[in-house]
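Forwarding these from the shared drive since the link keeps breaking.
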Amino acid sequence: MSNETIIAALEAENEQLRQTLYQRDAFIRSTFGRYLTDEVLEEILKDKDFKIGGERRDVAMLFADLRGSTQLSEQMDPVDFIRMLNHFLEEMIEIINAWQGNILDFVGDAIVVVFGAPRDNELSARNAAACAVAMQRRMAVVNEWNRAQGYPDISMGIGLHKGEAILGNIGSETRTKYDMIGRNVNLASRVQGCTAGGQILATDELVEEAGPSLILNEACAMWVTPKGIQGQIRLHDIAGYGKHRLDNSKVESEK
């Protein structure tokens, strides 16, 4: 076999490998690009042995939901309502990505975010708390835009929790999503359900891990018995993070 033939065979093999890697990267981007941050996605692409599968992992969870959105959807023009909702989500997504959160789902106007998956992050609780504060502070900008468009002001409640969850691909060969399930996921959702508009509530587990920069409104701490959760849990009212405080006077009295 001549040198030219060997070289041509090697070049063909290299081209085949390049095409295989390109197809692999394109598949990962199309499958996970919509709900993983760019940083995490690039890390996955650089690691040839990385696989996302079912696993137990200690993570921080953030559940956010708009208040009174069902009533607004019935009162507003559908096109205007969706435009307002999409602008709200765009603003929130920017902040979530900045704090290394991974959006697992949009459920109507609700956002489900995990910190510390699919890659471990020892600062997951801190990031979740700081992210929640930044999200609430950004609502002033959201509502300023709403008023300029002739839309009503909106408010959001956020629940935070930290604990073990099962994470992995859920679905079938034709449709799959990366998601988390378990008791702690249900608890995080219930914590969000206890919030008023403009409020952030967090469990003991999240607060203990978030660090000293967390600002708490201890007078608003409460004991609750969430539906489907055995026993009482204590919820802390987060008033800010670091130098950034929330304007608690804007917290709605009705949930």
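-- next protein --
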Amino acid sequence: MTSTSPGSSGVTPGSLVTGIASPEEGKSSRVFSLDVLRGIALLGILIISIWEFGGFTPNKQVFFRTGTHGGNYNLLSFVSIVFEGKMRALFALIFGASIILFISKKDHPSSLSVSDLYIRRQLWLMLFGIFNAIILLWPGDLLFHLAVLGILLFPFWRMSRKGLLIAAMITTLIYCGKQYWNYADDRKVYKKFSAVAAVEKKFAVADTVVKLKIDSLLKVKNNDPFSNKLIDDTLLKRHKNDTLTKEQAKDKQAWEGMVKGLKYDSTTDKTASKAMRSNNYAKVWDYLLWRSQNKESYWLYRTGIWDIGSMMFLGMALLGFGFFSSSFPFKKYLLIAIPCIIAGLLLAWFRNHYQDIKLADYAKYIDKNIIPFNQFFPIERFLLAIGYASLIMVLLRTTIFSWLWRILATVGRMAFTNYFLQTILCTVFFYGYGMGYYGRPSQLQLYGIVLELWLIQIVFSVLWLRYFTMGPAEWLWRYLVYNKKLPFRKKDAETTIAEPAPATT
């Protein structure tokens, strides 16, 4: 590892504040562009999270993908191509950059070393994530994964910016490899099933031959009871020898179960709705627990470590290159944004198109395609995350939407609080122990609810920060990390020595 930091790369936290910032941010160590990006990512995450909150299950999505391709299909495809996985990637990218900012900060209000403070910060974030998933009942929680990856990536923060960029690319390629690995497993299952199907075909051919021979010997009509009984008895004796072994039966069931999972099943949605609309918190908790456990363990181990880790590496690298500062050339943003967005959207279209083909006939898909439909999804989200970030940085250089950037920055400054607020509002509205709207709104109505929730969060953030220095969840997190009460009300902060707020939430 090369022992470097943002400072040795010519980019310091202080220099990041200037340029792309609002006037009121000039006296703090916050990075205005990161606040804006964080706010956009936080709001954008809800576009996809609302699927799981509101009961727009993968099963329902299969119904629209395999049925007539009408308005619901087109809307689903558009959202999937433009947003699915990208907002989570952007959020992880910003979190990666915040790691460097936190560790590089010189004036932490604690006598503990920065390393100790950082690990405490991540461990508390991990507990917040478990609380969000297990107590508030949000199986799609992201905090736990960010906390775990933050600890795993801690030893790499001193790497050079080029080294971090290479690490981001390598982890993305490994993620691509994992996609193919999963598909290779499916191909093995299908290959075994094909072998079993060939055996069953031989059995069927042999039975037909025996039946024809008996018919010709007896020279009687098939509707003769005595003839039919004799044929059945003969075939029964054959079937005692011509049956699948336990291993063959297992191979057959494995593929048939996989294919069944790719088909729409109305009973699946009915079961989910019944459980999620229960006015008993314990029943909803029991139904969601396995999904939370799967996401926090199996998914993190198999996929999340590469999914989130690659974006965090990228965020750390971009900070070193000065990507979030006013010194980064305007033309470079355009050179990054335009090709990355175009290439990313093309890959997203490829994924969406071939996903439909897979759902229509997976056996046919495997026969004709050597790679899975989502083979390039890691590259797709990598390109679109950095492309979207570059486009936003271009827009930040303009003064046309300065009012909008200030609003989004307030959401970003309170991202931790707003993340919990999303969970609370959605669970109360959709789950049975609240208002019980799970599975009731249409897809279009769900996005309407997203707009309403955005408005609530924006208004709440703007009003809250008029009177307080940070969000309530941010204050609690910092209190637990520093073991010290920091100024919370603005009027209290004005009477004490100003303590710069950490640049991440």
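The CA atoms of residues 9 and 320 lie 6 Å apart. Residues 13-189+270-493 form one domain.

- D.
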